């Protein structure tokens, strides 16, 4: 087996598919680490705990993800649900960080 990760359409075995998924999952976690670093910054910058939850921004972020999913031909409802969970987890993380720094 080669260490080369094939694009999905080029995979011919489940071993290749699983290797690609595992590699992509590592990349996704690295991207989430970058996203959560912005939550650290937001917790540091926001002047009050009540500023952490911003429902208008939450709605915008989920709508952006939904629109991008539609543009890419992905299931928009699934992506919106994932983003709902991601945003809520990000808010909880930011609140925790806010509380730890005050």
UniProtKB/TrEMBL annotation:
<keyword id="KW-0670">Pyruvate</keyword>
<dbReference type="GO" id="GO:0009697">
    <property type="term" value="P:salicylic acid biosynthetic process"/>
</dbReference>
<dbReference type="InterPro" id="IPR051331">
    <property type="entry name" value="Chorismate_mutase-related"/>
</dbReference>
<dbReference type="Pfam" id="PF01817">
    <property type="entry name" value="CM_2"/>
</dbReference>
<dbReference type="GO" id="GO:0004106">
    <property type="term" value="F:chorismate mutase activity"/>
</dbReference>
<keyword id="KW-0456">Lyase</keyword>
<keyword id="KW-0413">Isomerase</keyword>
<feature type="binding site">
    <location>
        <position position="35"/>
    </location>
    <ligand>
        <name>substrate</name>
    </ligand>
</feature>
<feature type="binding site">
    <location>
        <position position="94"/>
    </location>
    <ligand>
        <name>substrate</name>
    </ligand>
</feature>
<feature type="domain" description="Chorismate mutase">
    <location>
        <begin position="8"/>
        <end position="98"/>
    </location>
</feature>
<dbReference type="InterPro" id="IPR036263">
    <property type="entry name" value="Chorismate_II_sf"/>
</dbReference>
<protein>
    <recommendedName>
        <fullName>chorismate mutase</fullName>
        <ecNumber>5.4.99.5</ecNumber>
    </recommendedName>
</protein>
<feature type="binding site">
    <location>
        <position position="18"/>
    </location>
    <ligand>
        <name>substrate</name>
    </ligand>
</feature>
<dbReference type="InterPro" id="IPR002701">
    <property type="entry name" value="CM_II_prokaryot"/>
</dbReference>
<dbReference type="GO" id="GO:0046417">
    <property type="term" value="P:chorismate metabolic process"/>
</dbReference>
<dbReference type="InterPro" id="IPR008241">
    <property type="entry name" value="Isochorismate_pyruvate-lyase"/>
</dbReference>
<feature type="binding site">
    <location>
        <position position="46"/>
    </location>
    <ligand>
        <name>substrate</name>
    </ligand>
</feature>
<dbReference type="InterPro" id="IPR036979">
    <property type="entry name" value="CM_dom_sf"/>
</dbReference>
<dbReference type="GO" id="GO:0016835">
    <property type="term" value="F:carbon-oxygen lyase activity"/>
</dbReference>
């Amino acid at each position: 087996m080669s260490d080369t990760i094939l694009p999905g359409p080029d995979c011919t075995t489940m071993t290749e598919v699983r290797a690609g998924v595992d590699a992509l999952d590592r990349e996704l976690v690295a991207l989430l680490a970058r996203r959560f670093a912005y939550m650290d910054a937001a917790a540091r910058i926001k002047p009050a705990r009540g500023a952490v939850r911003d429902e208008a921004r939450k709605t915008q972020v989920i709508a952006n993800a939904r629109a991008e999913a539609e543009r890419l031909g992905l299931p928009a409802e699934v992506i919106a649900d994932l983003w709902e969970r991601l945003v809520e987890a990000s808010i909880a993380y930011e609140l925790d960080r806010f509380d730890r720094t005050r």
